[in-house]
Amino acid sequence: MENDGPRPTYTLFWEALSGAMVVELVLEEIGASYERRLIDMANGEHLTDNYRTLNPTGQVPALLLPNGDVIGESAAIVLTLGERHPSASLIPSATSAIRPHFLRWLIYLATSPYMTMVQFNHPERFTSISAVHGDLVENAKSRLVSQFEILDGAISGSPYFFQTGFSAVDLYLFMLVNFFPAKSEIFQNCNKLRGLYEAVECRPSTTRIISNHVVT
Ligand SMILES: N[C@@H](CCC(=O)N[C@@H](CS)C(=O)NCC(=O)O)C(=O)O
Predict the structure, then answer these.
(1) Ligand 1 atom having least distance to the Cα of 122
(2) Are strands 62-64 and 70-72 parallel, antiparallel or unpaired?
(3) Closest residue by CA, ligand 1 atom 16
(4) Over the stretch 79-138, which tens digit does the pLDDT of each residue have?
């Protein structure tokens, strides 16, 4: 979101087709004013002292809050934004019966399929032995298919993950499926996941940002 007016409330440290997509979707859903700041990871900008001062892990996404603090970790950012903007109803309230389930699946998404996706896209981060990179990619692909099947089995709502309706878990899951090139391979056994993906894909917030994430 470009902004010529007053300073935006949030700054999202961002790169296309990265975990910043879910934060961008959350910011759009809550209608926050924000700017994206590109971190050029292909050229190592995430490893510079400047960026590491903001986010010591050297990873994207990170979010600059109005008080000047920067936080990293996609799940923490999603929770922070959801709690600061409760009227968007993206995260269940602390006393809601669905809250523990929401936390459980949000954390699963951030720690399991997201990390498997890193192995799928960047086997070189796991070993310098290039002869085994293909095996690592195949292993990641089959684990991703199983993880998506687990998620499909856990969907209790329609079209969204929870019976209580749309939430940030839908946005996170949409992002991960979006990153997976062989969607038909997952959708053939995961009808609920297909319905969720298509429902999130049609949301105005998604249509506003998705062209920022095309493969060039
Ligand atoms: N646990 C982190 C993972 C973030 C992550 O792995 N981001 C990738 C981009 S999608 C990254 O910055 N990779 C560069 C690196 O790890 O050096 C989160 O959930 O935000």
Answers:
(1) 13
(2) antiparallel
(3) 59
(4) 999 999 999 999 999 999 999 999 999 999 999 999 999 999 999 999 999 999 999 999
Tell me 215's DSSP state.
-
19 Cβ closer than 6 Å to some ligand 1 atom: yes
The pLDDT mean for the chain works out to 95
Mutate to test the pocket of ligand 1, among 59, 109, 175 (most ligand atoms within 8 A of CB): 59
Q: Looking at residue 6, what DSSP letter applies? A: S
Query: What does the pLDDT look like over 156-176, one tens digit per residue?
Result: 999 999 999 999 999 999 999
**Domains plus CATH for the chain?**
10-90 (3.40.30.10), 99-203 (1.20.1050.10)
Q: Is the pLDDT of residue 145 over 70?
A: yes
d(C-alpha 95, C-alpha 143), whole Å:
34
How many angstroms separate the CA atoms of 172 and 188, rounded? Answer: 21
**3 state SS of 64:** strand
